[in-house]
Specification:
single chain, Rossmann fold, Arc Repressor Mutant, subunit A, 9-stranded mixed sheet, two-stranded antiparallel sheet
Length: 495
């Protein structure tokens, strides 16, 4: 007979009062949610486990952590009926103290070891050697995990997965920049990727259009982490950009901040904690560039993906969006490069990113830079961002021809053959419109005889003329007849 590991009626090691004190302290001071090293498994009471998990997700989604938002969240995930309003009031009435993390950790450790010991004892009594060996291995792994502080798994329920999601918190919707995986801006040297990213930062901080085209919903707090240029070069560019784009520095308040050659790196052990504290209250971070931010990592090794994932975790926990600069590969002569392979280093960089853009400079440095999105953000619905150009131009001031600089969006020019085809179609549509004005009341068949060409093409042009509102169809009882909407003869452009 197996001897019980604890007396009948006595449950596993736990301290519900310590759990409620921890919950009350974190609701009163949400900053402690990031500071205390606890997981859902450290709470024994099922109601406490549910409350802790939802507090974590409120903080990760940037929603205020308080009793009202907690209750609303429990309603959304269908857990309030189990937790109950009375229990929430009990938690809020608990006197908050410094979260007794050591007590909860000790209880968790004892529960884990007791459960494993129970399994080992039962396996030994039944003579199941395989089960006994498994229990021994799991007990050793549990002790090792505690020693190394290895985190446990956190799985969300089916109800969580299908609960209503908050809307995407876009920083620049037109460029698909939002919290989550970092947006990457890649390019060769002299492609103006740093200058362009600084204009992006300046526009987001001032609430003006990025590159004069992509709307920003409101002014936001921006941090620029410069691992490459140095203070003088970076500050000078911000001053020139502000002059070129007519942004008064005082209008920024203190929403734009600059960190030069930070001593915190993405490949350090405590990078997550350091970055999470830095971006508290920040909506956008420009990180220039990956190579400088991860100096101990080999960008050609797949392990570099861990640095990208660090930013993703920080973003999901804080709601801050990241735009990271990265260098592009040198294109081999006479070899067509795959756009998805333009970023230098391991494919893990591309895979771990959200939206990815590649900037290309032309042979003439005065020509606009070409920008192509090689990967859309997962949060974006619809088509990728269409390719475009960035025109970089000096803006003079009295006595200084390069006092300012401006970075402006330009649409991509159409290839010659596409432009010629569009012009040919426009002229044919014009000819058909003029024919209908000269000879109103013709049927589709008679128009086809008079105009010539393909019947399907003519019918498509008639549909376009109807869409523009310059022709109408009338039925005389025998046939549909096409008439101009105006008796005055005029061209499609209104002249």
């Amino acid at each position: 007979m197996v001897q019980p590991l604890y007396p009948p009626g006595e449950g596993p090691e736990h301290n519900l009062e310590a759990e409620r004190q921890t919950l009350a302290a974190c609701i009163l001071n949400p900053e402690q949610l990031r500071d205390v090293e606890l997981t859902t498994a450290d709470f024994f009471g099922e109601k406490n486990r549910i409350i802790w998990r939802e507090l974590q997700y409120l903080a990760a989604e940037g929603i205020p952590v308080d009793s009202l938002h907690l209750r609303d969240r429990l309603v959304q995930v269908g857990k309030l009926a189990f937790v109950t309003d009375d229990y929430l009031l009990d938690v809020m009435d608990t006197i908050p103290v410094q979260p007794p993390v050591d007590i909860l950790k000790r209880c968790t450790r004892q529960r884990t070891l007791r459960q494993l010991g129970q399994r080992l004892s039962a396996a030994a009594a039944s003579g199941d050697d395989a089960a006994a060996e498994t229990a021994v291995r799991e007990a050793a792994a549990a002790l090792e995990a505690r020693a190394k502080r290895i985190p446990t798994w956190e799985l969300r329920s089916t109800a969580d997965i299908f609960a209503p999601l908050p809307p995407v918190s876009w920083r620049v919707r037109g460029l698909q920049i939002c919290p989550g995986r970092p947006c990457i801006l890649g390019g060769y040297g002299a492609s103006a990727k740093t200058l362009s990213s600084q204009q992006l930062a300046l526009a987001v901080a001032s609430g003006t259009a990025v590159w004069g085209f992509f709307d920003v919903p409101e002014p936001m707090n921006v941090v620029h982490l410069d691992y490459e240029q140095g203070y003088h070069a970076t500050a000078l560019r911000y001053q020139r950009l502000a002059h070129g784009h007519r942004i008064e520095p005082h209008s920024l308040s203190d929403r734009l901040r600059l960190g030069v050659f930070p001593r915190v790196y993405l490949d350090q052990l405590h990078a997550y904690d350091a970055y999470a504290k830095l971006v508290d209250g920040v909506q956008l971070v420009i990180l220039d560039a990956l190579r400088g931010a991860a100096p101990s990592s080999d960008e050609n090794d797949s392990s570099i993906r861990a640095c990208i994932d660090n930013l993703t975790r920080v973003s999901e926990a804080t709601g801050c969006a990241f735009v990271m600069l990265h260098h592009a590969r040198k294109q081999q002569k006479d070899v067509a490069a795959d756009d998805k392979e333009m970023l230098r280093g391991s494919a893990g960089i591309f895979d771990g990113a959200g939206a990815v853009y590649v900037l290309r400079a032309q042979k003439d440095p005065n020509e606009p830079r070409q920008v192509k999105q090689t990967k859309p953000a997962a949060e974006a619905a619809g088509r990728p961002v269409e390719p475009f150009q960035l025109d970089v131009m000096d803006v003079p001031a009295p006595g200084d021809p390069t006092a300012g600089v401006r970075v402006l969006y330009k649409p991509m020019p159409l290839p010659d053959h596409v432009g010629a085809a569009i012009e040919k179609s426009r002229l044919k549509l014009e000819r058909l419109h003029e024919l209908i004005q000269r000879q109103p009341g013709e049927t589709k068949s008679s128009l086809h005889r008079l105009f010539g060409g393909s019947r399907n093409e003519l019918f498509d042009m008639l549909i376009e003329l109807h869409r523009r509102g310059v022709v109408r169809t009338e039925t005389d009882g025998q046939a549909d007849r096409i008439h101009p909407t105006s008796t005055n003869q005029k061209r499609l452009d209104g002249t």
